[in-house]
Amino acid sequence: DVTLDPGTAQSELILSEDRKCVRHGDTRQDLPKTPERFDTCVSVLGSEGITGGRRYWEVEVGDKTGWTLGVCRESVRRKGWVTWSPGNGYWVVCLWDGGYEAWTSPLTPLPVRVQPRWVGVFLDYKAGEVSFYNMTDRSHLFTFADTFSGKLRPFFSPGINPGGTNAAPLTLCPVPAQP
């Protein structure tokens, strides 16, 4: 059950009261400038730190024109412009400028047959894998393979909202418990 951590949210982000939705607002809010808060990148972390096991969550991306999802080390840089790459502690995929990409170095374009409206993120800490799935057609999007140490956190960026074209929120969806 992933919720968003308001203490990490960049000041232009609006979180829902239940901390399940995030969207880009029109103006900066007057929020405390803490080391935990992203100051430039429109990003927010999940509340729960992950140090082992397997976790799965789904995010409704709907008709958004830009977003980024994945996991990151809790210790990632949060000030200034940040390059989202495994070398910097980010394992993420995104929709950017009309294309889907995994933020590897260099970027890996993702062949997407059906536009995802829901994206599933599966983290297997011990195996060192973060996998992404298009839950609209149940296809695999990409898997990062790495070695994890320390605490990881779910990562979300709803993207900016130029002229109202990307106003919809990212919404964390309930996932039925498996028997």
What does it look like?
Residues 1-177 form the B30.2/SPRY domain. It comes from Alligator sinensis. It holds the Pfam family PRY. This is E3 ubiquitin-protein ligase TRIM39-like. It is a single chain. With 179 residues, the chain is mainly β. The chain has one domain (4-173): SPRY domain (Jelly Rolls, Sandwich). Helices cover 0% and strands 37% of the residues. It has no helices and 13 strands. It has strands at 13-15, 21-24, 44-45, 54-60, 67-73, 90-96, 99-102, 108-109, 118-124, 129-134, 139-145, 152-157, 170-173. Strands 1-2-13-4-9-10-11 form a seven-stranded antiparallel beta sheet, with no helix packed on it. Strands 3-12-5-6-7-8 form a six-stranded antiparallel beta sheet, with no helix packed on it. A hairpin with a 4-residue loop joins strand 10 and strand 11. 34% of the residues are buried. The mean pLDDT is 92.
